[in-house]
Amino acid sequence: MTLTHYNEADTIPQSASSLILSDMDVLQNSLSIYIHIPFCGVKCTYCAFNTYVSLDHLIEPFVGALNREIEIVGSNTRDKAVGTIFFGGGTPSLLTPEQFRRIFSALRNHFAIQPDAEITIEANPSDITRDYLVALRNSGINRLSIGMQSANANELKLFNRRHDNDAVVRAVSAARAAGFDNLNLDVIYGVPHQTLQDWGNTLTQLVALKPDHVSLYGLTLEDNTPMLTWVEQGKLPLPDDDLAADMYNLATDRLRDAGFAQYEISNWAKPGRECRHNLQYWRSLPYIGFGPGAHGFADEVRYSVLLSPQRYIAALNDASGTYPFPTSPVTEQFTRLSIDAQIVEALLMGLRLTHEGIPRHMFSQRFGVDVVTLHRDILDKYAGYGLITVDDERVRLTDEGRLLSNMIFREFV
Question: What strands, in cross-sheet order, belong to the sheet with 358-359?
């Protein structure tokens, strides 16, 4: 198929394409892999991801096509070491252990998965049992991310989730019994009709379940979602930004008191349980995206895979020839990023890291210029407002800056 190609840039100099991160040895010289599973049992009302319901009959042919995509991309890269793998969606827990076994076989045949690789699967609470999780654990998956979303029945109904709070409790218990010692829970705040007391109830339940990692997402009203339509039609109130800020601050206090450290704007972890896969994104390091609608960034190329599962399967069944890494027969768009574009991404992603921020020495090694020299006016402006701190080692947001991060990020674009 013909690739849509944008913004061809000059060849990236070697000094910009090699990033030396002396204090990030676990991620150095390794790729990350994201695998998108586009199937769902139901569509959540807030979800704008590339997901599909009532296509279970395509799961088996999808697995075969996915393995072919892994083979094609893996055959075209010299950099085989993989430090993290993340199965997202959609609902990856709709796949059987045997289907995961075949996917891992393809991955191991074409990449060098590191012995200590972090391998995550997202799961719906109502899908998982102890036996299912034992089988996944035996296949190599060692991190579980459960979509809790809320502890309040009315909010789960609003989201069109197919689980209740008891299912979350059972899922966490099953995960621990199956040997998972690295467990994340996702929850959402800033929901229409949600009160601070409602949010506090979710936080209480969240802490009681004793996860190792927590991701808290402020609700975003996305295009082409029922939630946005209901707000536009007046059936739901517009989320209250001030109340959402209070919810964020409450979560920050409650999670700190429970022994979690905030390491990214939306993420908290117990010591040593930071999500290594997501750190790869936030540090602007290379990752490969497989599956319909997946995105990737490798060899200075940002790309996306076509959306339709049917077209995806057909294209890979008919695939022939060779493709330049990291593209494949299902690559729909790609662009070779200029140095300026890479700098913008490094700023927007790195500032999300609340303690690490943007290490000045590493930024200079990568781009040949000090971040403070490059953006002195912007940094001075927001440092004056108390939203950014700048010292000899790094640039990072203050606690107040985290709440206004989107406003600050726009300055760099």
Answer: 358-359, 394-397, 388-390
Rounded to whole angstroms, the Cα distance separating 144 from 120 reads 6
Nearest C-alpha neighbor of 215 from the set 52, 347, 303, 88: 88
Residues constituting the chain: 413
pLDDT computed for residue 87 by the predictor: 98
**Which of 27, 10, 13, 21 has the alpha carbon at shortest distance from 367?**
13
Q: Tell me the pTM.
A: 0.91
**Which of 291-307 are b and which e, b meaning 16 or more Cβ less than 10 Å from the residue's Cβ?**
bbbbebbbbbbbbbbbe
Q: What share of the chain has pLDDT > 70, as a percent?
A: 93
Residue range 328-368, pLDDT digits in tens: 999 999 999 999 999 999 999 999 999 999 999 999 999 99
The residue whose two tokens read 């994340």 is: 184
| CA pair distance 71, 92, nearest whole angstrom | 20
Q: Nearest-CA neighbor of 408 among 390, 392, 214?
A: 390
- Using CA atoms, how far apart are residues 170 and 158, in angstroms rounded to an integer? 22
Is the pLDDT at 5 greater than 70, yes or no?
no
Structure tokens at 317: 């069944």
Query: What does the pLDDT look like over 224-255, one tens digit per residue?
Result: 999 999 999 999 999 999 999 999 999 999 99
Angstrom distances, CA of residue 292 to CA of 10, 70, 123, 298: 29, 13, 18, 18
**Residue 62 Cα distances to 94, 313, 317, 338, angstroms:** 12, 6, 10, 34
Cα dihedral 200/206/212/213 (nearest 10):
-60
**In the CATH hierarchy, which fold is given to the domain comprising 339-412?**
Arc Repressor Mutant, subunit A (1.10.10)
Just give the CATH number of 4-282. Answer: 3.80.30.20
Q: Which helix (H) or strand (E) holds 380?
A: helix 376-384
Mean pLDDT of 271-285: 96
Q: Which residues in 39-197 belong to E strands, given as ranges?
A: 39-40, 52-53, 81-89, 112-123, 143-149, 183-189
Answer yes or no: are the C-beta atoms of 59 and 143 closer than 8 Å.
no
The answer for residues whose C-beta is within 8 angstroms of residue 144's C-beta and 6 or more apart is 120, 121, 123, 133, 175, 180, 182, 183, 184
Q: Where are the domains of the chain?
A: 4-282, 339-412
In DSSP notation, 246-258 reads HHHHHHHHHHHHT
Question: Residue 223 half-sphere exposure, CB side, CA atoms within 13 Å?
Answer: 0
